[in-house]
Amino acid sequence: MTLNEEISCIINKEQVDVVDDNDENKITTQFNSIVSSLPQPKKLIVGYALTLKKTKSFLQPKLENLARSKGIVFVAIDRTIPLSEQGPFDILLHKLFGKEWRENLEDYRQKHPDVTVLDPPDNIQHVCNRQSMLQDVAALNLSNCYGEVGVPRQLVINGDPASISDEVAIAGMSLPLVAKPLLVDGSLKSHQLSLAFDQFSLSKLDPPLVLQEFINHGGVLFKVYIVGDAIKVVRRFSLPNVNGLEMLDVAGVYRFPRVSGSAASAEDANLDPEIYEHPPRPLLEMLAKELRHRLGLRLFNMDIIREHGTRDHFYVIDINYFPGYGKVPEYEHIFTNFLLSLMQNKY
Ligand SMILES: Nc1ncnc2c1ncn2[C@@H]1O[C@H](COP(=O)(O)OP(=O)(O)OP(=O)(O)O)[C@@H](O)[C@H]1O
Ligand SMILES: [Mg+2]
To answer: Euclidean distance between the first and final Cα of the chain, in Å?
Structure first.
């Protein structure tokens, strides 16, 4: 018997009683209690532990409204109360830094294997250190008929700034070099990057850091957002090319602003198609599939550049966990579909 048939059967039976009792209120009350005792569609409870800034950019009304209409409810996690005293949750979304939070979450994860934690804290740590962040891309050594994907040559500097110049010479690295703080810890400082144009100025840098060879890429960067199996590419303006002649004139360390995160999109810009064209879709799909698996992460993005003058030489220069999805067009659809798919795969 279908649900409708069941209800109408019960109502018909109750109507017989109504003729007997002639009590309309009674039938309404009984009808309501029957309906509420029937199995309701299960809600998907998503706990989230995000900074205020992240909550604001991610949990926009368009996401919450669409999610609600699909039976997904977002619940804020209270950091002052132990995780195991909160919930129950089906899924846990998080991006908070600090050892205490990581341990708390790992402990919760062990005790609640039924809850999908996006993503495991140790896997996130791996991409919060620029020494390990790109290792999996390098090991993958992706090259096929659609193109090749690598990482810039890089060197980790932990010691005395005075010896950086020697270390760079020994490693045979070419200037200019991008200097990036070793750890990405959510602070503004960890995103303060600089470009070093000559070997003498290298001693002004502030270790621990990673030095990466600067790759000319025509001033355009591709932010490739991953949400489970979904991939969305957004074009952004980036640093302009540096040519050999300019290099003769410039010296020193140039601190540059956060270019790729800025609101300026390069989507509609009138650019050379060789620079402008997105990386081939099959190449990105292969890369994303491998990295999801190797990194053990489902929510991340990659900054990818195309080496200037080539059509199919790409470099991954950065990977971020739980990036600013709020800026991605249609992210509310991508995200709700992803959350629902997690539950479908579970049951
Ligand atoms: N090896 C490189 N060659 C050329 N440009 C680079 C290189 N590395 C970084 N850049 C430029 O510097 C910008 C910031 O670098 P990166 O993404 O590694 O740092 P970030 O702190 O994560 O910045 P953001 O949060 O803005 O992505 C890039 O978007 C790109 O414009
Ligand atoms: Mg970046």
So the answer is: 24
